[in-house]
TrEMBL record:
Organism whose genome encodes this protein: Algoriphagus iocasae
One Pfam family it belongs to: Adenine_glyco
Tree of life domain: Bacteria
InterPro entries: Adenine_glyco (IPR005019), DNA-3mA_glycosylase (IPR052891), DNA_glycosylase (IPR011257)
BP-aspect Gene Ontology terms: base-excision repair
Official protein name in the record: DNA-3-methyladenine glycosylase I
């Protein structure tokens, strides 16, 4: 990409990564289905690179019912066995079972709070935290907010969502703005 825009350095490498950075990462999300999609993808990432997951995103979309949490919650054992053979996703049984479990827990949170979005945004006071990161000053791996959220998710029975994974979710879905201040997206995501 040769458009001369200043970007966060982590996204440079291949076109899908740049497009993800430019169009999605850090944009505040209030849609429950999008939150569920990122919960599946980020829990699948544990121990892997985000680039690996992005390359398999369409495989996940196909395998996980277009991220429809109601359908995922009802996946039968036979389908779990099919998923373990699916090269379009990370074939880790614990992560696959966690996604199904988390779909069930996700709906419990919706029932209690009205939406998953209302629940999760409550951990940042309902509006994005605006960090002011500069080159050479990387984003933290966890924060007190991600620690609290991860602890609460664990208490509610969610799996594969520790504080580091939860903070990645908060970054991806705009609960925090961790674009570098000189990145063209820093001010753009503030306007949502």
């Amino acid at each position: 990409m040769n458009d001369q825009k200043s970007r966060c350095s982590w996204c440079l490498g291949f076109p899908e990564y740049i497009a993800y950075h430019d169009e999605e990462w850090g944009k505040p999300v209030w849609d429950d289905q999008i939150h569920f999609e990122f919960l599946i993808l980020e829990s699948a990432q544990a121990g892997l690179s985000w680039a690996t997951i992005l390359k398999k995103r369409n495989g996940y979309r196909d395998a996980f019912a277009n991220f429809d949490y109601k359908q995922v919650a009802e996946f039968p054992e036979g389908y779990v066995q099919e998923l373990l053979q699916n090269p379009g996703i990370i074939r880790n049984e614990l992560k696959i079972r966690a996604a199904i479990n988390n779909a069930k827990r996700f709906m419990e949170v919706q029932k209690e709070f009205g939406s998953f979005s209302d629940y999760i945004w409550g951990f940042v006071g309902g509006k994005p935290i605006q960090n002011k990161l500069k080159k050479g000053n990387p984003a933290p791996a966890t924060t007190p907010e991600s620690d609290l959220l991860a602890k609460d998710l664990k208490k509610r029975g969610f799996k594969f969502l520790g504080s580091t994974t939860v903070y990645a979710h908060m970054q991806a879905t705009g609960l925090v703005n961790d674009h570098l201040v000189d990145c063209f997206r820093y001010s753009e995501v503030q306007d949502y």
